[in-house]
Write a structure and sequence with these properties.
Blueprint lengths: L1 E5 L3 H12 L3 E5 L2 H10 L1 E5 L5 E4 L3 E2 L8 E4 L3 H11 L7 E5 L5 H6 L7 E6 L2 E6 L2 E6 L2 E6 L5 H11 L4 E4 L3 H12 L3 H6 L3 H5 L2 H20 L12 H9 L2 H13 L8 H8 L10 H11 L4 H16 L5 H13 L1
Parallel strand pairs: 1-2, 1-6, 2-5, 3-10, 6-7, 7-8, 11-12
Antiparallel strand pairs: 3-4, 8-11, 9-10
Helix pairs in contact: 9-11, 9-13, 13-14
């Protein structure tokens, strides 16, 4: 069995390292500078819950130069089209796995690669990279796997077998619904990026957690308006989310902050702040921005998620975080309009 993992990202590096440890012949594909760093230092995954450090010597390539049995796209959504296009001559017969960071990655891949080879994966992992190839794994999470298009059961089952060697996996019939659930749960992570604080620190402030609850309330209304069912993830239930969002705002905010602090023993950047800190474009357009796009089609207002998209783009351009006090003032003024 051989595999190619696209994306020298937290998910990509973790999966490549764990697959190598499990005996899979794997290479990782990414930008030349990051590939050079991985070739020099190897891949390292540091598990925070038990202190275990996993190291693997995985070849890193700027461009794919072989035909893998499994091609795993763990790229950020905005980088996926270029990666898939460049690799397309090698992937006509490969099982193609897409791992969601934001949304629509399988649609992007399907625009240049055989759609019936694509199997979608939704991963609940918490991971951050301090440099290319060096990952802090805050929690391993589970993976839900299903077909986005017309992939055969044989392809799905083969991917489940391989991913099951490194993760706890679950087979799903309606994978698109799981994508929407993951999208919803990602909505608050823009806030730590805007104020420049780790996730646990940011949401220890009840006023900041109130904004997170309001974002989730707005997001779930959009998803329900779109008539998409929220599927239970292995570590998340629809009932618990709806109970949280139905509680009085102060109570819900305190509970949300407690849940976030229990996620990991070490502070997490979250996906948006992780991109900002590395000087990269974030996936805000494929997370909060996707909710805004869906709402626009439905004629449904999303003032708070729209504001988050605007503030993250301002941050990307200015590279300047704003204080909690200023952030809360902006949110308050915006909601009064």
């Amino acid at each position: 069995m051989n595999a190619a993992v696209f994306g020298i990202t937290p998910f990509g590096c973790t999966i490549a390292c764990l697959l190598k440890e499990a005996g899979v012949d794997v290479a990782i594909i990414g930008p030349a500078a990051k590939a050079a760093q991985v070739n020099q230092s190897g891949l390292t995954v540091r598990q925070t819950w038990d202190g275990k450090v996993i190291t693997s010597s995985v070849p890193a390539l700027a461009n794919l130069n072989f035909t893998p049995e499994i091609a795993i796209f763990a790229t950020k959504t905005q980088d996926t089209l270029a990666s898939a296009s460049a690799a397309s001559p090698w992937l006509s017969d490969s099982i193609i796995a897409t791992i969601q960071y934001g949304t629509k990655i399988e649609q992007v891949v399907a625009s240049v690669l055989p759609r019936d080879n694509i199997v979608t994966c939704v991963l609940t992992m918490g991971a951050n990279c301090h440099r290319a190839g060096d990952v802090t794994l805050n929690f391993k999470g589970d993976m839900v796997i299903g077909k986005a298009y017309g992939a055969s059961d044989e392809k799905v089952d083969k991917l489940i077998e391989v991913m099951g060697s490194i993760l706890t996996v679950h087979k799903a019939a309606k994978i698109a619904h799981f994508n929407c659930t993951r999208l919803l749960l990602n909505l608050p992570y823009c806030i730590p990026a805007i104020i420049g604080e780790k996730v646990q620190t940011a949401f220890a402030d009840i006023e900041i957690s109130k904004v997170a609850i309001l974002l989730l309330q707005e997001g779930i209304k959009v998803i329900e308006e779109a008539e998409v069912h929220i599927e239970n993830l292995p570590d998340f239930s629809e009932a618990s989310l709806k109970t949280l969002l139905a509680a009085p705002l102060d109570e819900a905010a305190v509970h949300f902050g407690d849940l976030v602090r229990l996620m990991s023993k070490t502070p997490c950047e979250g996906p948006v702040l992780g991109s900002i800190e590395h000087g990269e474009v974030s996936e805000i357009d494929y997370q909060n921005g996707e909710v805004v796009k869906i709402a626009e089609i439905l004629g449904f207002p999303t003032p708070l998620n729209s504001l988050m998209v605007e503030l993250v783009h301002e941050l990307e351009n200015s590279n300047k975080f704003i204080s909690k006090k200023h952030f809360l003032s902006i949110v308050s003024d915006h909601l009064k309009k």
